[in-house]
Specification:
By secondary structure, the protein is an alpha/beta fold. The chain has 19 helices and 23 strands. It has an 8-stranded parallel sheet with strand order 8-14-15-16-17-18-19-20. Strands 3-2-7-21-22-23 form a 6-stranded mixed sheet. Strand 9, helix 5 and strand 10 form a beta-alpha-beta unit. Helix 10 runs parallel beside helix 11 and helix 11 runs parallel beside helix 12 (404-413).
Length: 565
Amino acid sequence: MKIVRRAAACAACLLAACATQPPSAPPDIVLYNGKIVTVDASFSVAQAVAIRGDRFVAVGTTESLRRTAGPDTRQIDLGGRTVTPGLMDGHLHNAGGGPGVNLSRVRSIDELLAAVEARAKKTPPGELIISNSDWHEAQLQEKRLPHLKELDRVAPRNPVVLVRGGHEYIINSAAAQRWNITGETKSPAGGEIGHDADGGLNGELVDTARALVHLPPPGPLNPTIIERQMRLLNSVGLTSIRVPGSFQFGGDQVAAYHMFQDLKREGRLTMRVNYLMRVFDFSSVDKVKALIASWNIKPDEGDEWLRIGGMKTLVDGGFEGGNMREPYAEPYGRGGKFKGIEVVPRSQYIPVVLELNRLGWRVATHAVGDAAVDEVLDAYEAADRERPIKGKRWTIEHFFIAQPDHFARVRALDLAISAQDHLYLAAPSMAKYWGRERAEQVTPMRTFLDQGFPVAGGTDSPVIPYNPFWAMYHFITRDTISDGVYGANQRISREEALRVYTINNARLTFEESRKGSIEPGKLADLVVLSADYLTVPEKEIEQLKAIATMIGGRFVYMDRAFRPQ
């Protein structure tokens, strides 16, 4: 409410503060009679914005900017609607979907099993059934994963592999038999095979244990699929994304990057893309060097549409495998013995990070648990001693569990944090695995901002839905989809949340002088909203929609509610 009151009380001052000199030549477009939330340094609010080519050229009052229009200027009446800078997602793999069993809309175990059973009835015996990855047990009424035996009941004649996010598979007995996985099979290093109390398989394969199953490669990615995904993301107001390692789980990251290059060359991109390459095999520094050399891709190559943003690495698992200092809650803690999964051991991770630094790559590391963050900081400090990384905006991706002793080390290395709204969807699972007290403080955004850390927001789609308004709502309220508020002390303001999903993402990729706010000279990326983000009741932030999305002065999405002449 503080932001609401300030916006209402200081409107005149803000309009005056954000007024700019009129453009020297007539603009191509003037958007007027709106509420232009600029997200400039003073968070000014204006009535109108002028655009020439792909840039903003002036911000100010309706009267002053309409006077600058020429005979060919397109003037669009916003009808009082709110406009913000184009929204950005700092950690997005893709928009989800695919040819597998769609579980994204099921809301109970029965519905999930019915979806699998329906596919099994249409599938020849012995043929593999796979789900899409964009679902999570927290969306289910029971808030649990299906069990191997339940999958056996609905698909007794087919191997079934349910792909849950990017860290876990759930299989049935036919799949276990196909790949010779038994109750006696040992969990591989960096992974976990799930068991019941009696030692039998429960169907869960976590992190590197997924490699025991050999899924067919995903269907070929092509430019048309990428375009379709970009349009989906445009429809929720996204104008920039940072892709952490691949646009297709299990796909060819180099081929995908070249497809983005082709789309850019042909003028078909409707999204600005910061693309991170990824290391998967940490077993040998020589292997990593050879792999990178084979790509023929250079750090930071590209332009304002498509740029290589660094190298994605990882050290631990996800919700079910984050590497912690303290044991998991029982029964998952196994009597205090289980603290998560070190997917990549220090002995392999640190030498690779050192080599990436020598080769000039900016490093971004997936780290969920506090022990995983310890490992990352140790590696980054070692790299900094050899070749300074300060000012290069190396990042920690996710950073679910933070400890006070992390903060001075993060600050000394000048690190950025790429944070997402996993808690919004998965709160019950986190409480189950880690205990409610620890889950309450997952992704402590208030603490990060109070520490002065640069924090960029994202979703980790398809692990979490790609809607940025859901993410902002979560960080403003700490409300979750199915389990109420977690960690109310970590709430942030509406202004802070909007910065996190706009200008802070631009800073993460060294583009804060080009985009992220509505200011003269910056790229004309914006979104027109269905309601006023600054004043609607908190719960309605979750329901906000983009009714128009513009990138570089061109509308790439328009809802039926917004059809300007």
